[in-house]
Design goal:
- There is one protein chain.
- It is built from 19 helices and seven strands.
- With about 400 residues, the chain is mainly α.
- Among the domains are: about 130 residues, no CATH class; about 55 residues, Muramoyl-pentapeptide Carboxypeptidase, domain 1 (Orthogonal Bundle), CATH 1.10.101.10.
- The strands form two sheets. It has a five-stranded antiparallel β-sheet.
- Helix 7 packs across helix 16, helix 13 crosses helix 15 and helix 15 packs across helix 16.
- The longest helix has 16 residues.
- It is globular.
- It binds calcium ion.
Length: about 400
């Protein structure tokens, strides 16, 4: 999970650091690392980080194994049905419900204060660390310092390194406690240090914001982060639906909203085949695998809060779907037909073809992100195909022959 999250990056508000170290050069080996750390210490002192916290950098060395892991992430690509089959296990659904019951008082108090329901939080808890079992034990500062020096995304990791020092400086975590996943995520729902620093909550009142060991702190902080990402209390996030064989497919796009009444008019039904509520409530029709795959009505809580937690559509759809399962929804239907997802190599080929045609698909990374979907939709419209934004082997073949 952590890999997806990191690849999606960090909120734009992190571009606050424009001082010496941020302007420093970068490097793809240990050469120059010590000089970088020296200037980073100065910057930390200038930002008011305590000397005790800054001295935590004394034992930090450049770690090539972190860079190796970072580069290995590039081949990650799976369809929603493949990914959810791996991640949404019966164990996680059952255990999620068990934990909501076990910690009912905490979940109730958290929902009262932040407006985020238990299943949503517990689904992230499951996906990120299996309810706190796999929080990682790598030294966070070493990972972040290495990634902050590395040339790939220094602008993302330098503020994270600073935030990690701030966590020590503020007394939330000791140097020894600052350990977690390889790319700097900490605790049971894998907060990056910046989110930890900005949004963690001391909910058990012991004076420390402890996302490693305190379940009340973990639950409340996760809810607080979602709330900051725009979560709207009392509103749904994702509901599976049944769709007809024919729809204005170009409207099935998470960037497009219509009142539920409009979707009802177009023939969208509940998963049990009944009419959906035909009211003015806005919703998007989300087809993560195109018109023949699973179908959902996605609400603003999905298109804002979930996608800010992790902008990967496959991850977010899976997290939101797992939450619905924990809340009692049935297993997802595969859809109206067979969907043959593109392989990693095919996605890369598609992205190259689209880029050659002049589309901005972002990085050629083998992942079907926002840019690729938008380009696919445009090409489908031009070719007179159902414009459901989902690339198929047939579409790829047509483009290559075309
Ligand atoms: Ca606490």
């Amino acid at each position: 999970m952590r890999l997806v999250r990191l690849l999606c990056g960090i909120s734009a508000s992190l571009t606050i650091l424009t001082t010496a170290a941020s302007a420093a050069t970068c490097g793809n080996s240990a050469k120059g690392f010590d000089g970088f750390m020296k200037s980073f210490r100065q910057e930390a002192a200038a930002q008011g980080i305590s000397q005790a916290a800054i001295s935590a950098l004394d034992d930090v060395a450049y770690d090539p194994s972190i860079i190796k892991r970072d580069r290995a992430q590039n081949v990650f690509s799976q369809s929603f049905l493949e990914f959810q089959a791996r991640m949404v296990s019966d164990y996680r659904i059952k255990q999620g419900a068990v934990l909501i019951k076990k910690h009912k008082a905490i979940f109730d108090a958290v929902e009262e204060r932040f407006g985020v329901p238990g299943p949503v939080i517990v689904a992230f808890w499951a996906l990120e660390t299996d309810f706190g079992k796999n929080i990682g034990d790598l030294p966070t500062l070493q990972s972040l310092a290495t990634l902050a020096w590395d040339c790939r995304r220094p602008e993302k990791f330098r503020p994270q390194l600073m935030a990690a020092l701030d966590l020590i400086s503020r007394g939330d975590l000791t140097i020894d406690e600052l350990r977690g996943a390889w790319a700097g995520e900490i605790g049971q729902t894998q907060f990056l240090p910046y989110d930890y620093d900005e949004s963690a909550v001391d909910f058990d009142g012991d004076g420390k914001r402890d996302l490693r060991n305190s379940i009340p702190d973990v639950i409340a902080s996760s809810a607080n982060l979602l709330r900051k990402h725009g979560w709207q209390p009392g509103q749904p996030w994702l509901t599976e639906v049944r769709i007809p064989d024919d729809l204005p497919w170009d409207q099935a796009d998470i960037a497009v909203q219509h009142p539920r009444a409009q979707w009802a008019k177009w023939g969208v039904k509940t998963v049990g085949g009944k009419p959906i509520k035909a009211d003015g409530f806005p919703a998007s029709l989300h087809l993560p695998m195109g018109r023949n795959g699973p179908a959902f009505l996605a609400y603003e809580n999905f298109t804002t809060a979930y996608l800010k937690w992790n902008e990967s559509l496959v991850y977010s759809t899976t997290a939101a779907y797992l939450a619905t399962r924990i809340a009692g929804a049935p297993r997802v239907k595969p859809g109206n037909g067979e969907v043959e997802p593109l392989s990693y190599k095919q996605i890369v080929a598609l992205q190259e073809t689209l880029a050659n045609m002049g589309y901005d698909v972002g990085k050629i990374d083998g992942k079907i992100g926002k840019g690729t979907r938008a380009a696919v939709k445009d090409v489908q419209i031009k070719l007179g195909l159902p414009a459901d934004s989902y690339p198929t082997p047939e579409l790829l073949a047509r483009l290559r022959n075309g």
